[in-house]
Structure formats: structure tokens, C-alpha cells
Task: inverse folding
């Protein structure tokens, strides 16, 4: 990772604030019985979590945020279809897989592998509910391959 400028850190801080605000608005909307509005805000938080995953300064907190965003979408948003270009689980899984295979620090890559496992677990739940969800099946299979490839490197016997 290159040098982080004050501007980059400021941008990341703004993304985190926007992510937190979207989640607060989603929780508030849901508590007021506005499920569709809550879903929109959770999807907005998901989009912000993807921006954090693709930033120059990936943090363990950003990895956790991506999992939380997927969990919220899983619980409060419509089930994504195979034709959905913004299938939140597929998008997040692809970003996490790229981080695992990257030149990031071992700690970040380890965190990404663990986050990827959570996303794959959610995909497996979708497959159990609807066996025709081929994109979710694909994520589970890709995770298994990624785990076999990187587990011994990233998960030590400490």
C-alpha cells in the first residue's frame, strides 16, 4: 500500500460517516414501519461498504463493515436474483476474494478470508432456500477454492 495522503484519509472518514448515517437512517425507517425505505438505506450502506473495500486504505474495520452491510441487506432487503447486477453478496465476495489474493498485509488478507467465509455462508443460506440461485452457488464454490488455496498461508496454528 502506498503512502496515504491526508485527503485519502479524509475521504475514507467521509465514507465511514456516510455508511454509519445510512445505517442509522435504515434502522430508524425500519422502526417506523417503512420497510422499503429501510431497504433503500441498507443498500446505500452496502454501496458505501464496497467503496471502502476498493479504497487505497483497506482496514479491518472496512472488512467488518462489508459483512455487516451484507447481513443487513440479507435481513431487510429483497432477495437478490441471478440477474441482479448489484447482487450484494456476489459483489462483496468478488471484492473480498481479490483482497485475499492481493499483496495486502497478512492481517488484512486474513480478515478478508474470514469476511469471505461469512458472505459464502449467507450465499449457502440462499441456495438452501432456492437451489436455482446459481450465482450464490458460484460464490460458495469459489470460496471453497479460495479457502483451499490460501488457508494454510493465512490461518496459522498460533
Result:
Amino acid at each position: 500500500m502506498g503512502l496515504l495522503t491526508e485527503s485519502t484519509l479524509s475521504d475514507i472518514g467521509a465514507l465511514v460517516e456516510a455508511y454509519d448515517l445510512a445505517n442509522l437512517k435504515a434502522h430508524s425507517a425500519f422502526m417506523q414501519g417503512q420497510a422499503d425505505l429501510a431497504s433503500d438505506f441498507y443498500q446505500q450502506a452496502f454501496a458505501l461498504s464496497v467503496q471502502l473495500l476498493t479504497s487505497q486504505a483497506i482496514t479491518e474495520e472496512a472488512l467488518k463493515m462489508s459483512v455487516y452491510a451484507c447481513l443487513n441487506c440479507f435481513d431487510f432487503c429483497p432477495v437478490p436474483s441471478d440477474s441482479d447486477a448489484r447482487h450484494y453478496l456476489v459483489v462483496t465476495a468478488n471484492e473480498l476474494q481479490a483482497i485475499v489474493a492481493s499483496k495486502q498485509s497478512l492481517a488484512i488478507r486474513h480478515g478478508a478470508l474470514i469476511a469471505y467465509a461469512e458472505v459464502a455462508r449467507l450465499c449457502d443460506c440462499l441456495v438452501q432456500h432456492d437451489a436455482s440461485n446459481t450465482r450464490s452457488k458460484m460464490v460458495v464454490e469459489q470460496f471453497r477454492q479460495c479457502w483451499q488455496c490460501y488457508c494454510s498461508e493465512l490461518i496459522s496454528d498460533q
In short: Residues 6-154 form a domain with the Leucine-rich Repeat Variant fold (CATH 1.25.10). The mean pLDDT is 91. The first helix runs from residue 6 to 31. DSSP finds six helices and no strands in the chain.
